[in-house]
Design brief:
Blueprint: E1 38-43, H1 47-50, H2 55-62, H3 70-93, E2 96-102, E3 143-147, H4 158-164, E4 169-175, H5 177-190, E5 194-203, H6 207-218, E6 223-226, H7 228-232
Parallel strand pairs: 1-2, 1-4, 2-3, 4-5, 5-6
Length: 235
């Protein structure tokens, strides 16, 4: 009889989300870990989205709400040591690292998704916003992918890039868990990639939103929930 992985209990204060369909089918199989076939995806960990002085932080300040995203930036600060640990591990073991960021071809962002970023007449984007956070900045020859959509797969050549390099196992990190991370992870899984959501290397504007997204995404284990320590232990 096939053993099913135990269902992880929800974080305190988070309602358990479970589709009973998954009790009727076999748990999706996942191949053994292979560093040569694995890639780390770091989503939107750029100043625009993840630094208090970036565009999102300035947006709140310009509207007289300097603490509007305080939980977000504190949450990001909390996961940064975990992300740095995983990034260091990947660089040491030869796991491919892909940095994904929002970046437009035009100053007006007219080439991007309608409404993804607005109020730029009041709070304009500046070059600082496009830079990856200090401490996890790309090394020479690491791939940086610019996107203009929520899911990386909808506005970039990431699928072709990964397949060219023979990568079919993805470790998903970044911000926000229920937004760009989730849509990228779901699109990847739908294309046949084996996806691990690194739960302690992702963040949202609130812990409640993060916890809810983790529960929804990993129900049924089509996308696996894993921690940095679990991934590092794979070798």
């Amino acid at each position: 009889m096939e053993r099913r992985a135990p269902v992880r209990p929800p974080p305190e204060g988070c309602m358990m989300v479970h589709d009973p369909y998954w009790d009727l089918v076999h748990e999706p199989r996942e191949p053994a870990f292979d560093a040569k076939r694995t890639a780390l995806l770091i989503v939107d960990m750029q100043n625009m989205c993840a630094h208090p002085d970036g565009w999102m932080g300035r947006l709140g300040k310009d509207q007289g709400k300097p603490d509007q995203l305080r939980e977000r930036f504190e949450f990001i600060g909390d996961i940064m040591p975990n992300l740095r640990q995983l990034l260091t591990h990947c660089r040491r073991t030869g796991i491919e690292v892909l940095h994904i960021r929002i970046a437009f071809r035009t100053n007006t962002t007219r080439d991007g998704k309608r409404g993804l970023l607005n109020r730029q007449d009041e709070t304009p984007l500046v070059p600082f916003d496009y830079e990856i956070l200090e401490g996890i900045a790309p090394l020479k020859d690491e791939i940086v992918i610019n996107k203009t959509s929520v899911s990386t797969f909808n506005s970039t050549a990431i699928d072709q890039i990964l397949r060219n390099m023979g990568k079919d196992r993805l470790w998903m990190t970044g911000v926000v868990t229920e937004g760009c991370v989730e849509l990228t992870a779901r699109d990847a899984a739908d294309r046949g990639y084996y996806v691990s959501l690194v739960t302690d290397a992702c963040a949202s504007s609130t812990h409640a939103a993060h916890d809810d997204a983790v529960q929804r995404m990993t129900d049924g284990n089509v996308i696996r929930a894993r921690t940095v320590s679990e991934l590092v232990a794979l070798g």
